[in-house]
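Aim 2, interim progress: modelling of the adenosine-5'-triphosphate-bound target.
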Amino acid sequence: MLPESIELIVVTPERQLLRQRTKEVQLPGADGYLGILPGHAPLITELGIGELSYHDMSGKESVHLAVLRGFAEVLPDRVTVLAETAEFAADIDIARAEAAKARAEKRLASGDTNIDWDRVTVALQRALIRIQVARKYRGVPVDSR
Ligand code: ATP
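Predicted structure of the complex, ligand included:
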């Protein structure tokens, strides 16, 4: 028999952010977004950088998080996300993310040959997805400044 719901668990190195029953989860896999309903075939995927969303049990409200790298294990009745970083859209400090974005852009534009490119580009990606998820949640057009 198919399970009726999924237990969604989101863990970061700092804490367990979320343990919640839901009917549907969308998460950014490394190769694109995955939509997961109860009874999904088991799989393990690398996480990309993007937005994780799930519906509450009424199916009316959806909750959004910015997630950044890690792994997800999908089972028919459970999804476990081990993310390097994850934040609820409502908790994201946009000004802080804008400052992080400006710092990363300045480093990239500096012409300094000693830059750790991987570190700077990942920092920039982190800032960009935080801004995108938080603005969408607050109803601010993503392109507007
Ligand atoms: P910053 O330079 O602003 O610290 P960062 O990308 O280096 O940004 P991280 O190392 O990814 O920050 O995160 C450190 C902690 O701060 C984590 O718990 C993360 O969830 C939180 N955090 C980082 N940026 C934000 C933000 N804009 N809003 C809310 N929480 C944030």
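The chain has a mean pLDDT of 92. Helices lie at 94-109, 117-138.
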